[in-house]
C-alpha cells in the first residue's frame, strides 16, 4: 500500500476540512502526498484558497493519518479494496462528477467501470406495483444485456427489491452504503448483502465506525447517481431520496427515466412530476434504456457475428472510430473504461463504437474485456 493511498484516506479525515475543500486541494496539487508534504508551498500553488485551510491541515494531519492507518489495517484484514480518485480502477463515470469522493471502499467482484450500469431507486414504502416493476426491469436487462450491473442503496422498498431482482435474474448488483463496511444497515438485509459480495458488491465512501446518519444517505445519493449512465426512478412520492438522486443524475448529464403511475397515486407522484418537468423520460420497459443509450444487445451481437467481416483495408471511419483506432494502434490492447477515459467520451458510446469496429474486422475483443487492433 503506497503512502499516496494512505495520505488520500487521511485527507478525508482531517477535522474541519470539507469534502469540497479537500477536492480543491487534491485536484489543484494532483495528489494527496504533495498536499501534506508541501504544506509550506501550498499557498503559492493555490493563492485563492482561504489560508485557514492550511492551518486546518497542519493541525489535523497527525490524527487523520492515524485514523487512516487504522482503516488500512481493517481493509487489509477484511479484503476491502481501496479506490482513490487517481486509481485506474476508480469508477470513471463517478470521477467525472465535480463532487466525486476522494476515496471509495469496496468489497465485491463487479467491475465498477462495466459497460452497462443502471441505477434503480425509489420509495422505501413501495407498493406491489413497484415490486413487480423491479422484477420486470431486471428480467428485461437479463434478456437484453445480461452484463448489466444494477446499482442501488440496500434500503427498504425499491432498493432492496431491485437488488434481489438482479440477483434472481443472474445480474450483478452493487449497493452504495451510507456507513462503513463493518456493518450492514438495515440489518435485516444482511443475507442479501452477503450474496451481493459474490454477485456484485458493497461500496461506500465512509470508514468503519461511521453511523448511518440521515445526512450520509443524502450524500451517498450522488454516488448512486454518478456510477451509472442511466438512473431509473421506479416509484416515488413527491419528495424523497429517489427524487434527489434523479435530480443529481440529471445535473451529471445522465439519462433519467421514471416509471409512470396513475394520476393521484401517492407513490407515483414523484415519477409523474419528473416526466412532466422534462427531467425524466417515460420508462415502459428496459428496451427504452437500451435503445436510448444505443446499447448492443446479446441478440444483436450474436446476429452480427454470423455475418462475414468487411475485408477492405481502409474502410471509411467516423471520427470517433478513427480516434479509437489511432489510440489502439499505440498499445497492445485497452479496456473500454481506459479508452473512455483517454478520449473523454461516455463508456456506452465507446462500447457501441467498438462493436462497430469489431464488425468491420478492425478490432478484436480479448479475454478480460481488452480490445486490440487487428490491423492499422
How are helices and strands ordered from N to C?
A: HHHHHEHEEHEHEHEHEHEHEHHHEHHEE
Estimated structural class:
alpha/beta
CATH fold annotation of the largest domain = Rossmann fold
CATH architecture of the largest domain: 3-Layer(aba) Sandwich
- Domain module tally: 3
Number of strands: 12
* Largest sheet, spatial ordering of strands: 1-2-6-5-4-3-7-8-9
Globally, the shape reads globular
Q: Provide mean pLDDT, rounded.
A: 90
Radius of gyration: 22 Å
Beta-strand residue percentage: 5-15%
State the name of the first-level CATH class of the largest domain: Alpha Beta
Q: State the low-pLDDT regions, or none.
A: none
Straight-line N-to-C gap: 39 Å
Question: Into which percent range does the helicity of residues fall?
Answer: 40-55%
How many H/I helices? 17
Main β-sheet description: 9 strands, mixed
Gist of the model:
The chain has 376 residues and is of the alpha/beta class. It is 48% helix and 14% strand. Strand 11 and strand 12 (370-373) form a beta hairpin.
